[in-house]
Task: structure prediction
Amino acid sequence: MPEAPSSPGPAAPPAPGLAERYRSVRAYTEGLCAPLVTEDFVVSSMPDVSPTKWHLAHSSWFFETFVLTRHAPGYIPVNPRYAFLFNSYYVQAGERHCRAQRGLVTRPTVEEVLQYRRHVDEQMLKLLAGAPPPEVRSLVELGLHHEQQHQELLLTDIKHVMWTNPLRPALWPAGTAPWAAWHQSSPRPGAIGWREVPDGIRHVGNDTSGFAFDNERPAHRVFLDRYRIADRLVTNAEFRAFIEDGGYRRADLWLAAGWAIVQNEHRGAPIYWDQAGDGWTEFTLSGQLSLVDAAPVNHLSYFEADAYARWAGLRLPTEFEWEVAARTHPDLSQLFGERWQWTQSAYVAYPGFRPAPGAVGEYNGKWMSDQWVLRGSSCATPDGHARITYRNFFPSDARWQFTGIRLAAP
Ligand SMILES: [Fe+2]
Result:
């Protein structure tokens, strides 16, 4: 029997290059705000959505709290009350403001938050210039990956804010966003092809010395039965066929909790879709556009993804089926950079999982209930952030992330 793979855990990133990466990640966040006007920064359109201003401040608070306050001798926080406003959920880091009311906070102003960022940046770069020890470098690395997660959240949140506005403003004219094309992301027409994966004991999880979140470790083995996986994501046209076939009116296709929501909220299409004559439009970061048939369907909840799979006579893959297929069939399209892909795996700890001690250990571990794992990455995920072992997670009815479907079959 083969030995279980070892999980050495991540090594601290080398000091050279870390300051440059710090500068570049922080600047990318601010670059995302280029099309916003001051009023856009302040609004939250639902409890799940944080204002852009909050994301800018919270990602700075993370460095201030976990790096500067503990490891930069003599560091004095810019404003001791900011910890209350900009701590998200770290109970061991103190009391915090109510998440649902973040959009009611008009002070500090956007300019004051940008000054806060500049102050944290100056102090962080001073610290990094002094060749900090591995423990500090690892925290900086975590802070950079944390900031990248907030870059995606900033985009999904501002999209919801713009959609809530009856004017439906466009933030980037179509085709001008500096990263992925928001709307027409690599359409894949033609029938789905299937890749087969034979049964066997498989290694999953992260056993590299590179960065990975604690929830990707330890690597371990699982047994998988033979299965097939789709070579591309489900398209808008395919999802429209589900709607036209009464998919949102058939209780037999839905999990009970999902069906209750469909009934209570009279849902009949994905969140950003609007019917326009015979066709559909979709709200995007470039405004309200015609639905592109061959583009991967976007912004589905787990309930919708699961109902679609049932309607198609298929199912969602487990997270390990996704990971093993991504390794054995790297020619699968749209694994990364298009839509996060719902899996039918509950977000739980891997065998032997141990969160880091202290407040930073609250990052992932305490969220391991009532959520599902998503794999891959989306068009809003910054370059260099995704990994084959990455485990994103959201509750069953989350629809405002860039989430789609890859099907599996026995
Ligand atoms: Fe955060």
